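Annual report, structural modelling task.

Input specification for the iron/sulfur cluster complex:
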Amino acid sequence: MNAAIRTTCPYCGVGCGVLAAPDGQGGMTISGDADHPANRGRLCVKGAALGETIGTKGRLTAPRVNGDEVAWDKALEMIATRFTQTIADHGPESVALYVSGQLLTEDYYVANKLMKGFIGSANIDTNSRLCMASSVAGHRRAFGSDTVPGLYEDLELADVVVLVGSNLAWCHPVLHQRLLAAKAARGTKIIVIDPRRTATCEGADLHLAIAPGADAHLFNLLLCHLADEDRLDQDFLPHVTGLAEALQAARQSTADSTGLSPDDLRRFLALWSGHERVVTVYSQGINQSDSGTDKVNAILNCHLATGRIGRPGTGPFSVTGQPNAMGGREVGGLANMLACHLDLENPDHRTAVQTFWRSPRMADKPGLKAIDLFRAVEDRRIRALWILHTNPAVSMPEADRVARAIAACDFVAVSDIWPDTDTARLAHVLLPATAWGEKDGTVTNSERMISRQRAFMPAPGQARPDWWQLAQVAQRMGFAGFDWSGPQDIFAEYVALSGVAGALGSDFDISGLAGSDYGAMEPVRWPVATKSGGRFFGDGAFHTPDGRGRMVPVAARLPSALGAETSLRLNTGRIRDQWHTMTRTGMAARLMQHLGEPYLEIHPSDALRLGLGDATLAEVFNPLGRAILRVLKSEAVQPGHPFAPMHWTGQTASSGRIDALVPGLCDPVSGQPASKSAEVTIRPYQAAWYGFAVSRKDVQPDCAYWAKATVDGGVQLELAGGEIPEDWPSWASRLFGLSGPSAVLADPALGVHRMAFFDQGRLAAALFVARSPVLLSRPHLVQALGERDATVLAGRPAADRPDPGPTVCACLNVGLNTILQAITSDGLMTVDAIGVALGAGTNCGSCRPELATLLARPNLREAAE
Ligand SMILES: Nc1nc2c(c(=O)[nH]1)N[C@H]1C(S)=C(S)[C@@H](COP(=O)(O)OP(=O)(O)OC[C@H]3O[C@@H](n4cnc5c(=O)[nH]c(N)nc54)[C@H](O)[C@@H]3O)O[C@H]1N2
Ligand SMILES: Nc1nc2c(c(=O)[nH]1)N[C@H]1C(S)=C(S)[C@@H](COP(=O)(O)OP(=O)(O)OC[C@H]3O[C@@H](n4cnc5c(=O)[nH]c(N)nc54)[C@H](O)[C@@H]3O)O[C@H]1N2
Ligand code: SF4
Ligand SMILES: [Mo]
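The model returned the following structure:
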């Protein structure tokens, strides 16, 4: 067996080291890299399931033009010609690149060089605009540069860790586990600020269910409290400007606006102000707001005023979402940045980069930010667009409008690994990219650690890396300086440019890596050229013109009032086992078991008022679009503030694209959209029938509602419709493309129809229909696929085979019923006891917060005691 290859996880910004070793049977064994400083061998469930998502079945393996496979030469020539022609006819601002925080640094570098240095326009923006832009803008206002001051270790060294607008347990699981381990070791106090009770609240000492959008008020109140209680750091304050103005603005904030009880508020203020070592971690609950930059600065103000920054166990900590969100910021991927933390609007910086690149024409003003960029596509100011490694037809606000704009654009190229994503379907030219495991490069994680992603398997068909595609087009457009032989050359050029930037005062100077062995490169944290990798700003030296940190006056405001009394404010975000638009995680059956259908988490009082029964379907709509989602009643959300996940696409559900409902309302400073507060109306979807189906073959339903999930050996489908088909057996046989069915069990008076299709005695497909949501053991039916199971139409396991229920622990495949049963019958009291008894929670640990929730169910406790 070959030795394991050391690489880095392609999902979240924690940036865990991964070992990939061939399993000798054509697959790969994936494990955590014990030597990687981010994870020390741990992986979360998404990382652990990587081996199940690297198959090449269904991949895009050759370039396509208008759907037909063509040679690379033709596709590249076509992009170069169309870009060149469009620029000649309409100027450099009429073309654009829309890229991704999942590109490798080398890919990003080439895209940025091509656009800003050679095409001469800054119309290159990235999905990081939807993600990190408010943090970037807040950092630049406060520090004079987009620098994350702290390290992961600070979460372990702190006495108080505040998680605001971050569902760390699900979105940065390994970092969350590090935090929980530190808590167990030294009693760290954890405070979660989130309008919703999330898995992250398990293990927290205090959950502040804040009024949606009220975070700036809360941190303003904190600043006032710190001043009033004489907790400001008089030694650090000389390094900071703007205290008086910031305090004056903060005085306008009132406790009422936060929606918190006086007790909770007092506890928060006391914990934060009473401990020197405080880390405030923040993420999309802060950034994705129409006043996100102000919210960031309200947080930074408190850390600046108390000097709690850049020293062990202290600091504000913006955790990055995507694996290379940080690398993209360093390389200048955003429309308003230049490479290596240099400033696009600074003539000296521009000249230095232009000289280094020997470029004919430098962009001299910021380009269009994502929302405006797609508006410009819509009104034809942009006529040629190239989208790489992102799926904007799903993930952009006003997604229907964005999809229409892409579809109507004169020329669109898309680089992806699949031929049929919602965005890829709209491309004129489709380029096959190499995927994780097939490509080489570097990424930077949330704590500025640069790690290698390494190839460990061959690319399928003609797939080529993103950097190569960009460099080939650049050369065909007649540009010099794009003839690298591999990512190592690009990295070397980037390292050299960072030296130029360093000489101009940029903190991003990795020229110390010059001449290092790219192949063998170990994870390395910058700054590396001058200091040993460490923290920033603890010494009071900032990157502003006067060298001092800036406190920013924040006039906190709440989201604008809802337009109608019947409206609700829709919160959106992530679930534990899916990654964004599911193009990779959706392939792994075990990752689909946790939550396999688009849903609406809604407070029981709202559900009652709106007439939404449990597990029925809700129609969620506003003037922008519409979605149909499964109703999940839950007291974890506040009344009037339901939550829906962002992951479902046109490929995985009939109407689950949540961004169809999200307005393109942006923060005025950062241009980041407010993705967490869409105004919507909700009513019951009047289904005449509900269905559940399993099939060994992939099928495409054409009823009003469907949601599809990969399962072991096939797919499962949730279905519903407004009209009852005349003949169920023939409807089912059309759906599955099978003749039959072989067995039918029906009670037409009750609207119950069950039918099974056997192929050589083995279950090939089955459909269960009812007038109300179909109650049956889904895992049982899935397990029956491909089996000789004549009793399958009973819909539940025979008495001698217990039903495990929905999966909680995806690694060891332990179901809810099994866990509940063990808790009550064996009297289990702790998560660890569940682990000993069933294995659940002992592998990646991602489900441990949910196990804790199960243990806390009051009726269960009684039963167990
Ligand atoms: N499993 C999984 N992990 C991921 C990803 C994924 O797709 N799946 N994506 C990665 C990426 S790119 C990103 S950016 C990160 C995002 O990581 P997070 O930001 O942690 O994730 P979200 O679920 O988007 O939002 C976090 C929380 O913000 C809360 N929130 C909403 N409104 C408010 C508010 O007004 N105030 C406060 N305080 N909180 C609010 C939501 O209820 C939600 O629980 O996750 C990364 N990790
Ligand atoms: N409502 C709502 N919307 C949101 C958010 C939210 O919280 N709520 N969060 C926002 C945030 S923070 C983010 S980061 C975005 C993420 O949104 P997207 O970036 O659109 O989501 P992904 O599914 O990660 O898209 C990545 C695409 O790249 C393809 N791909 C995979 N590997 C490769 C490769 O090696 N090369 C190339 N060229 N392509 C590849 C995948 O198949 C997929 O189509 O969503 C944003 N949208
Ligand atoms: S926490 Fe999970 S998703 Fe994030 S990098 Fe680590 S293994 Fe990957
Ligand atoms: Mo993100």
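The domain at 807-864 is CATH 1.10.10.1100 (Arc Repressor Mutant, subunit A).
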